[in-house]
Amino acid sequence: MVPATPSASATRSPARDASRRLGLGALTFWRVLRANPLTLAGFLVVAAICIAAVIVVVAPHLLTQYGPDQLTTTYNQPPSLHHPSGTDGNGLDIYSETLYSLPLDLVIAFAIAGVAMLAGGGLGLVAGFWDRPGTVGGVVSVVVMRITDIFLAFPSLILALAIAVSLGRGVWQLIVAILLTWWPYYVRLVRGETLAVKHLPYVTAARAAGVTEGRIVLRHILRNVLEPVVVYFTLDIGTVLVTLSTIGFVGLGLVYPGQAEWGSMMSYYQGFGLITAYPWTVLGPGLAIFVTVLAFSLLGDGLRDILDPRSRRVLAGTGTGAITAAAPSEPALPAGGGGIAIPVESEVPIAA
Amino acid sequence: MSDPVVSIQGLSIDYVVGAGRFRAVSDVSLDVERGHVVGIVGETGCGKSTLAQAIPRLLPEPPATIGAGKIFFQGTDLVQVPRWKMPAIRGTGINMIFQEPLNSLNPAFRVYDQVAEAVHIRQVRESGRGAVVRTEPGPFDDSRRPSPKASDAWAGKVVPGGAAAEAVHRREVDRRTGRSRDEVRKEVLDYLRLVRINDPETILNLYPHELSGGMRQRIMIAMALSEKPSLLIADEPTSALDVTIQAQVLTLMKELIEEVNTSILFISHDLGVIAETADELGVMYAGKLVEFGPVGEIFASPRHPYTKALLRAAPTRYKSDGPLLSIAGNVPNLARPPPGCRYHPRCPIARPVCRVEPGPPLQAVTGAGSTHRSACHFAAEVPQIP
Which domains does chain A carry? Predict the structure, then answer.
């Protein structure tokens, strides 16, 4: 019955309920991270990079005293306290320039990988689940997969360069150029995972329970496909950044001060032969690419452990084989230490 | 005895594999009476599971195709129902428990979410928002309680001032069933207790991989029962479990059969299991139903040579002398079934006619009860087989 007034029990800590449903409380998340130092490092650096990007947009003077196109009176200065990455031949502070490029680089990388994941992943899910020959779904599946194959047949970097050349310079042009070569990988990945998952007994069991096909896809298949996709997505952010920099490096990127991305900056300095005379000019943006890509890779590798309930429980020490006592975030677990009272091997006896 | 929950008439199922085509189930007719437990036994590969999965149309089609026959359920022929309409019949109409409890629960969700999904499916249908399928009264029958309609909640009819609608808005009350989260939770706990799970509050928050096989199978049973199905198909629910757990789950099933008034089709290759649970027994051989009748009668006096051999081959703890008996020969290859009666190469009373003429349709046996039917030309001679 609909309660006239929401009773105390009906409103029983919805936040706790929600976190329990997700199975991923902040505390669990932290415990898994702590168990895996490299992932933790990756997570912290990624967090720092994202926070830095926000600060650059909101209040750049907190991180640097120079604007992106602000000329100083010193030229070709080696790194110093005042100019952490030195200055270039025009007197621009390289540290500031690199920093100002950060938000744009991140947004482009997330946009490309994100749209590729949603579009490619969606196509892969549909093509993988409804692939019975002789049905509408089967025809759609074949068409999607053949188009994917066509795109995959081209070397993706060359294709991206060709598209970038034909579209001209600009943020949108760059995003479109890379995106067009980026989505097929997600189709392949998600379709493969879907094919593997859809024949598992729990999908049949869900079907037997009267769950509709659409809901099976969205709930039972998607949730079990999500894990490798999110991991791949995180690793992919780094790959997109590298591709972006490559396109910039060969001279098709964004070059305006404050809107330059890192590959273009490196290319610009390298083009004057400055790499031998003034190596710090290349080092600034180069180091930025290196650190960002590495951080996302480390985080991506560890995300699998966080997303998979099995390893999550073990690493967080809240499940079977627990090292520590039951986590406070899981109050329903019996207190009494040692985690959970259900031994895996022996059976809980039938109640009298 | 004339109100079958499901009535299978002349059902044949073919598998098309490559250029080959073989008949896994041929011309099976079977009724499951309301409230009865019907057991199906047979060797591996005799078509039991194919038959079980064909009823709720869960077989992958292709490679499987229903070659002929009808499956009447609540007045409709399921063979004619388009596939996209089947989800409305599955669950509350026909539900199923599978062989593999280890993989039949979704590894990504906690026990609560999985049982709640089943409860939710039923509640949606009870609230009249899904396809209307009659459900059996369950052990926690609250069907007499008027279920609040979600539309009432939206319109603010239940409580003046629209508090109910507000509750829906805050997602404390389900939009489609009008039930509060606590009600669902209570019902989930009820069903976990029904399958004798101690401390269900703890189990709710566990993932399937943290549970043993027996626990998982109990949760599968709880999920199936929580939908109050008219017909429950148990496809070897204990085969994948080890013997002690098997015994526990079987005891549970037997107790539940008493408590829950559901018709059950119980598939097994274990005669002991069937003897303990079923009212009627069907024996399958090479895709055909060769004998059907009351369990006691078949066990006391089988009227098909295959049933007789099967019973003799079953190990009993009372007869420990001598070697374990087996049936000579193998189950025939269904791509090239033997001519005539399919059992004749292994049959001790086979005559020349058996090699030519296929076994007769199930027919009443003289000298046996009226509901006891066998598909043997010489059913009357079976009792004389040593």
Answer: 97-297 (1.10.3720.10)
Considering the domain boundaries, does residue B223 fall inside one? no
- The token duo for B215 is 């626990």
Q: How many domains does chain B have?
A: 1
Alpha helix ranges (H) inside A130-259: 136-153, 156-167, 171-198, 201-208, 213-215, 222-247
Is B341 within the bounds of a domain? yes
Q: Which of B106, B159, B191 would you mutate first to test chain A, the one with the most A CBs within 10 A?
A: B106
- B49: in domain: no
Report the alpha-carbon distance of residue A278 to residue A270 in Å, rounded: 10
Of A2, A219, A220, Cβ closest to residue B153:
A2
For B59-72, write each residue's pLDDT tens digit.
887 788 888 888 88
Residue A276 structure tokens: 């031998």
Find the domain containing B340 and state its range.
Answer: 284-384
Q: What is the pLDDT of residue A330?
A: 36
Asked whether residue A261 carries a pLDDT value surpassing 70, the answer given is: yes
A57: amino acid identity, one letter: V
Sign of the Cα torsion A56, A58, A64, A66 reads positive
Distance, CA of A238 to CA of A253 (rounded, Å): 17
Q: Confirm or reject contact between B201 and chain A (CB < 8 A).
A: yes
* Inter-chain contacts counted by CB atoms under 8 A, chains A and B: 163
Q: Is the pLDDT of residue A324 over 80?
A: no
**β-bridge mates for residue A87, sequence order:** A93
The answer to whether B117 contacts chain A (CB < 8 Å) is yes
- Enter the tokens of residue B320: 């420990």
Report helix angle A222-247 to A156-167, nearest 10.
Answer: 60
A-chain CB neighbours of B110 within 8 Å are 20-21, 23
- Rounded Cα–Cα distance for residues A313 and A25 (Å): 12
Quote the Cα angle for B303-B309-B315, to 5°.
Answer: 125
- pTM as predicted: 0.79
**Measured between alpha carbons, how far is A30 from B237 in angstroms, rounded to an integer?**
40
Could you give the 3-state DSSP secondary structure of residue A155? coil
B95 in A contact zone (CB under 8 Å) = yes
The two structure tokens encoding residue B61: 């089609």
Q: Is residue B21 part of a domain?
A: no
CB within 8 Å: A334 and B251: no
H helices present in chain B, as ranges: 48-54, 111-126, 150-155, 163-169, 181-194, 200-203, 213-226, 243-259, 271-277, 295-300, 305-313, 352-356
